[in-house]
Fold this protein.
Amino acid sequence: MFSTLSSVLLFVAQVASDTLYAGVSESGGEFGVYGVPGTGLPGTYGVTYQFINEATVATFVSQSKINLFRVAFLLERMCPLEYGLGSRFNETHFDLYQQAIDFITIEKGAYALLDPHNYMRYNDPSSQPTSGSVIGNTSDPKAATTAQFEEFWEELAGRFRFNPKVIFGIMNEPHDMPTSLVLQNDQAAINGIRRAGATQLILAPGNGYTGGHSWFQYTCSDCEPSSEYLYQIKDPLRNTAIDIHEYLDYDFSGQHQACTQPAPSNLANLTTWLAQHNLKALVSEFGGDNNTMCAEYIRQEIEYIADNSEYIGWSAWAAGPLWGTNSPCCNDGAQYGSLEPGSTAAGGGPSLYETVWEPVIKPLVPVDKLKRFGVSTL
């Protein structure tokens, strides 16, 4: 399998790029809660969940020269259910998260994208992505309100307002909710962040798991196209980009080995929409399996991002300290390990770090073009 990649990789060259950010998602802060509601809350840090491994972050920075890490956390751990969503935090949990963000940004000089990995839901992450009450759903008495979401973001942004290398990702993959409510919650988050005095870059998601391919489509009966709403976002500092996820398998889920959906054609309409509305986007999730077709499709996606000025960067899914031999992406149940340096596949074979990151993604990191200093911006 691995030798068949060589013919494709002979043609992989680092492309000229205006890409500002390139990196990887650090998945692990959302772990340990699946099962009966309430399982794993708050959890045991370093056992049931963990944000990063400092040693492997250092490896990415020193060997791949990336400048972006997207770090997942759960709202229910930051704002325990007994407090509710808002400005009161579990300070022990926040301190652990801040340590991870400070290591990335202060110790290693990269940018950190804060990622509440909650699918625009709060109160029950036990069966993500479908469990929990939709934030702002006024017909659900258990749902956190949009105002609470704004309070949460004002508090979190205020705590990081003096760290120029933080990026605020409003929410991971909203879905199956009115797109007008996605916009309402996005705008509330932006309002809270700016009220806190934070000037850094914000990423605002759309509906339908924020898929670029479906930007002009209904993704459920009440899920109007994101294209009809997201251009209405208002940021007084004009430092907000659209957050996009774009996988390459047949259903865009990132769960299957075969790559059959080319990103350039599937993102074309979104790219035109971004240009029409003078907006930028960052593709914060994408991925593929360790086969020849996926190597080509991953290359196409990264090069498309580099070749179109409407995009400011990307992060691949996923690394993280607790994946072990399990695969976060594109595996049809096979376990090839993750993008985490030093990980292995089931049976001891090479992981996706060795078969996908190093030969396919790493050569496309525009090392000399990436933003290295200053506040996160478009």
